[in-house]
Amino acid sequence: LQRDAKGQFLFDLLCHHLNLLEKDYFGIRFVDPDKQRHWLEFTKSVVKQMRAQPPFTMCFRVKFYPTDPAALKEEITRYLVFLQIKRDLYHGRLLCKTSDAALLAAYILQAEIGDYDPGKHPEGYSSKFQFFPKHSEKLERKIAEIHKSELSGQTPATSELNFLRKAQTLETYGVDPHPCKDVSGNAAFLAFTPFGFVVLQGNKRVHFIKWNEVTKMKFEGKTFYLYVSQKEEKKIVLTYFAPTPEACKHLWKCGIENQAFYKLEKSSQVRTVSSSNLFFKGSRFRYSGRVAKEVMESSAKIKREPPEIHRAGLVPSRSCPSITHGPRLSSVPRTRRRAVHISIMEGLESLRDSAHSTPVRSASHGDAFAAPGRSGRAESSERVAVIADENYSPADSVLPTPVAEHSLELMLLLRQANGAPCSIEEEKESEAGTPAAAEAEAALGELRALCPGAGGLGAAQAEQVNKFVLSVLRLLLVTVGLLFVLLLLLIVLTESDLDTAFFRDIRQTPEFEQFHYQYFCPLRRWFACKVRAVVNLLIDT
């Protein structure tokens, strides 16, 4: 990537590679060195958003779940959404009853291995595949029974479509959980779905707020506020605490984007949102994409031959990486020279691999917010009523696809290709192999110290001082300019009769009213008194 390449360039390149037109539902996710998730912002430079060193590990994900996935225009889009929901099911994000879980798993089997064949599928064949965080023999028998008797003859596309229709009816469809705590200190997961804001505690949905009832979202530090206006002018403020300020800001940005995508009629209605009532305080963010209604209208105009889809077979559980094992090498990004030219079949294969790659667990999230019911996976599954842990705790999927263990191997390969040492030992040997150069450098340093004029040390120091002085002057000018602008704005707010929405919102805040009556008015009276005294003195003289 060029250093100034925007996120939109990378996303368009990826969608072109996948032959994907209905791309507004998808996004690119990455994890920073502090294990915090982020969505790649398309209006900003890719390199500047990354705090890690290349090569970068990013993940292609569904960012906005379709309100009706069965209504998607193209089969390639439905297939990619199918892969994402299958991954959600595998990581315990998609809660469902045992009967629904068996049907969903049977749809996956039918889509990826076809009709039941006694010659190919011996007794207990469904137990070789991992669909959920935990299984039971009873559930596996139910999956095989549905696959044998009810789904025979369905094509992969039909099975995927039926899978999407069933998944859409579940309460946790489209949930991307954010671990938080409520005001009582209880662990909770906040999520934004196509239909509204959701709070999950235990394995239950304790809050569901429609998008048209959400009036405002803001955050301060680790605290997230959701302002709700329900019927009969009833106003509620929900408060939750994120593990870190960065996690809280990510939660807030996800909420702003989801509300804009699902609630607004046109992208021209999108406004820049501030996390604070005062324009000079807090963060500002603006959703930059199209809204759901525009996406549906654009999809209806697609007229082309359906692209060919190379479906990959289901990955058996024996070969699925566990929490303690790293992801597959195929889920690691390929080198640059192959990135653009690999076939669509390989691209979908890599998506398939990532669909069953269990993410690396975050210490900050998993330790602090993992629910106490994780030992429930070892319980007898005859008592399982919900395909998830006793407490809803998708801690294994708090991160997206993993920061690969093989990234070190890739870095060594890239360094070798560039002529750099292949290992730390080789690098140390190469450094130790040049003592003469080190001695010469040391001698040169001593010579420069003894003879500053010869090395131009005085000129270098003067240049550094000049740069420091210029930077200080620049800082002072910017500070004076900001103070002048704030003074003008303060005069306009307090002395003018302008009644715009922006000024009205600021004037109605308690902080501004307190400042106006306790500080500004006494200061104005004192200043007016001094001006009158000076004027009277001039008149007398």
From TrEMBL:
The keyword Transmembrane helix belongs to this UniProt entry's keyword annotation? yes
What is the recorded function of this protein according to its Swiss-Prot or TrEMBL entry? Answer: May be involved in regulation of cell migration. May regulate cell-matrix interactions via its interaction with ITGB5 and modifying ITGB5 cytoplasmic tail interactions such as with FERMT2 and TLN1. May regulate ROCK1 kinase activity possibly involved in regulation of actin stress fiber formation.
- Keywords for this protein: Cell junction, Membrane, Phosphoprotein, Transmembrane, Transmembrane helix
Q: Which GO terms describe its biological process?
A: actomyosin structure organization
SUPFAM superfamilies listed in its UniProt record: PH domain-like (SSF50729), Second domain of FERM (SSF47031), Ubiquitin-like (SSF54236)
UniProt name for this protein:
FERM domain-containing protein 5
Domain called FERM: residue spans: 1-266
Q: Where in the cell is it found?
A: Cell junction, Adherens junction
TM ranges are 472-494
Q: What is its main location?
A: other
Q: State the source organism's domain of life.
A: Eukaryota
| Assigned GO CC terms | adherens junction; cytoskeleton
